[in-house]
Amino acid sequence: MQSAPKREPSFAEQVGGWTQDGLREIRTLALLLSESLYHSTLGLRKPKTLLPGATALQMMRLGSGALPIVLMLSALIGFTLAMQSGFQLQKYGALIFLADGVGMSMVMEIGPVMTAVILAGRSGSAITAEIATMVVQEEVAALRSMAINPVHYLVLPRFWALSVTQPLLTVASCLAGILSGLAVGVLFFQLSPSNFMDELQQAIPMRYVWQGVIKSVTFAWLIVFISVSKGLNVRGGADAVGRATTACVVNCIFAIILADAVYSFIFYM
C-alpha cells in the first residue's frame, strides 16, 4: 500500500510556524536574560560553578582578540566618510563641519553598530559553535547530570566578558574613526587640528557618548543571548552545528539593526 504524498504547508501555516518559532526564541532569550541578571546581582552570594579565570579568558578570546580588526575597519570608515564629506563641504566653505559629521556619525551610529556587527560575526559565531558542539557531544547533558547549572558554567562568563569589552571596543572604534577623520582634514583639506578638536567638543555633548555606550551594552547582550540560545537548542549532528552558527550570525545582525532603529526613535524623538 502506497503512503499518501506529503502535503505542502500553506502560506498561512508557514506564517504560523514562523510566529511560533519567533515567540519561542523570544521566550528563551527572556529567560536567559533574567537568569543572567539575577545571578549577576541578587544571586552573587550564592555559590556558582565557575571556573577560576573563566571570565578573564572569555574577555581575551571574545573581546580583546577583536581589537585589531575593529580599529582597522573603523579607521577605514572614518577615512572614507571624511573624504566624501570633505569634498562636499568644501564647495560651500563649511569644512569646519567635517568634525561634526565624522564625530557624530562615529559616536552615535557607526562605532556601536560596526563593532557589534564585527563581534556578531567573530565572537557570536564562536560562542554558538562551541556550545552547539558541547550539546551534540552531550557535554551539556553531563553538566546537568552533575548538578551544574549550564547558565553558570557557559553563559555568565561570556555575558560578563562581552558586557565589559564591547563598550570598550566601541570607544576604541569611535576614537579610530575620529582620528582618521582628523588626519584627512589636516592632510587633504588643511584644517587646523585645534579647530577640528574644538568643533568636535561642541558637536558631541556627553549625552551622545552615553547613548553610544547604552547601545553597545544592548548589542552585547543581544549577541550573547542569541548565540547561547542557538547553541543550546541545536539538534542533530555536525551539520546542525553549521546551521546554528549561520542562523546565529544572521539573527544577531538583524537584532542589532532593529535595536539601533528603536534606539534612534527613542533618542531623537
Describe this structure in words.
This protein is an all-alpha fold. The protein has one domain. Helices cover 81% and strands 0% of the residues. The protein contains nine helices and no strands. The radius of gyration is 22 Å and the shape is elongated. The model has no long low-confidence stretch (mean pLDDT 83).
Could you write a compact summary of the structure shown?
It contains 9 helices and no strands. The protein is an all-alpha fold and 269 residues long. The longest helix is centred in the middle third of the chain and has 40 residues, at 150-189.
Largest sheet: none
Secondary structure: helix percent: over 70%
How many helices? 9
| Distance from first to last alpha carbon | 66 Å
